[in-house]
Amino acid sequence: MNDRKPLIAGNWKMFKTCSEAIATAKQLAHLIRKNQAVDVMIAPPFIALEKVSEAIKDSHLSLGGQNLFWQSEGAYTGEISANMLTSVGCEYVIIGHSERRQYFGESDATVNRKIRAAVDHHLKPILCIGESEKERESKDTFSVLDKQMKTGLKGFSLDDLTSLIIAYEPVWAIGTGKTATADQAQEVHRFLRSMLATSYGNTLANSIRILYGGSVKPDNISELMAMADVDGALVGGASLDPETFSNIVHFEK
Ligand code: 13P
To answer: Which residues are catalytic?
Structure first.
């Protein structure tokens, strides 16, 4: 047993207009109203954040951004800053998602700057890491994750990282219907926690939540959550439908 509170987070990616996001958030808030044992976060598209924030203000649903830029303000067309996210009620921010790395050129170095901005603005960063199918096949999983973690977290002190959350999302399992088995997830999560223990000590390592992401569904969440080092999930497709996502939040213990 550990005292890490599970976190089930929904990454809505580029889905839902503002009105669709409000309706989904309201339904979800209602469906999960009795479950205080799990933290639940949704990350709608930027344009819906403010209205969704109003819609869920009396619920225990939290809000997150899907990305940020590290500058506070300036001539950075198309970007959103950490203080803009907090100003509309965000508590979390997803950083370095594999889709951002793959399609928008994000690197471990830019991820590092983004985490700095999140920490400085009291946003809880959800650092996404994960290996590709090719890297897993060539047995490079651990070295890839080691580099993503070490570069992503370079220069941070123990205090900086108290609100850090890690999401292990193997790229080959995202949106493919192929989930890592619970044992595969546990093997990686244990490795990540031991890396954190080596760099920052056991107290911090034992308090950081490590989420699994990649084709999480109502029928595989319980198995994943039964693993000692799996503290929650970052859910894509299955977070878009309130009933399905609520079934994930209500996983069987
Ligand atoms: P899926 O749950 O659709 O596989 O997406 C996972 C993900 O990328 C969450 O950030």
So the answer is: 97, 169
Over the stretch 20-56, which tens digit does the pLDDT of each residue have? Answer: 999 999 999 999 999 889 999 999 999 999 999 999 9
Q: Please give the distance, rounded to the nearest whole angstrom, from the Cα atom of residue 10 to the centre of ligand 1.
A: 8
Residue 63: strand pairing partners: 42
Look at the block and give the residue holding tokens 């991820």: 111
Beta bridge partners of 210: 166
Per the prediction, the chain carries an average pLDDT of 97
Question: What SS3 state is found at 42?
Answer: strand
- Find out whether the beta carbon of 175 lies less than 6 Å from any atom of ligand 1: yes
Q: Going along 119-201, which residue ranges are E strands?
A: 124-129, 165-168
State whether the beta carbon of 43 lies less than 6 angstroms from ligand 1: no
Residue among 11, 98, 106 to mutate when testing ligand 1 (max atoms within 8 A of CB): 11
Torsion of Cα atoms, 141 then 142 then 145 then 149, to 10°: 180
Q: How confident is the model at residue 179 (pLDDT cuts 50, 70, 90)?
A: confident
Domains of the chain listed by start with CATH number: 7-249 (3.20.20.70)
What's the 108 CA to ligand 1 centre distance in angstroms? 20
